[in-house]
Amino acid sequence: METLIPINIIIADRSYRIRISPSDEETVRGTVKVINDKLLEFKTQFAGKDMQDYVSMVILWYATQQKAVEKRPPSDENMQEKVNFLEQLLDKALRP
């Protein structure tokens, strides 16, 4: 079992201490940066709201982005890799 490491992250001016896998640290920190950047963007665009409003907007934006990624058709390169893999499997299965 991989040892978890503690890290401090700041989201919406609040600090959180979390434990994560070392291999996930870069991804978590990148995600935190995207969230905080989007918070700043929404604060600039929609002045006069409170932090809860901005956090809600970011959650909605992030969830929508994830759904859009799921709906995207596979890339031609990805599809070609799958076709090649299937051809190799068929070749092996059909060899005497």
- Topology order in helix (H) and strand (E) letters: EEHHH
Give the CA-CA distance, first to last residue.
43 Å
- Overall body shape: elongated
Strand order of the largest sheet: 1-2
Please report the number of helical segments: 3
- The percent range for strand residues is 5-15%
Spans with pLDDT under 50 lasting ≥5 residues? none
- How many strands in all? 2
What share of residues is helical? 55-70%
Spatial extent as radius of gyration: 21 Å
**How can the largest sheet be summarized?**
2 strands, antiparallel
Overall mean pLDDT stands at 87
**Structural class of the secondary structure composition?**
alpha+beta
SSE inventory with pairings:
Layout: E1 5-11, E2 14-20, H1 25-45, H2 51-71, H3 76-94
Helix pairs in contact: 1-2
Describe it for me?
The chain has 96 residues and is of the alpha+beta class. The protein is 64% helix and 15% strand. It is built from three helices and two strands; from the N terminus they run ββααα. It has helices at residues 25-45, 51-71, 76-94, and strands at 5-11, 14-20. The protein has a two-stranded antiparallel sheet with strand order 1-2. Strand 1 (5-11) and strand 2 form a beta hairpin. Helix 1 (25-45) crosses helix 2. The longest helix is centred in the middle third of the chain and has 21 residues, at 25-45.
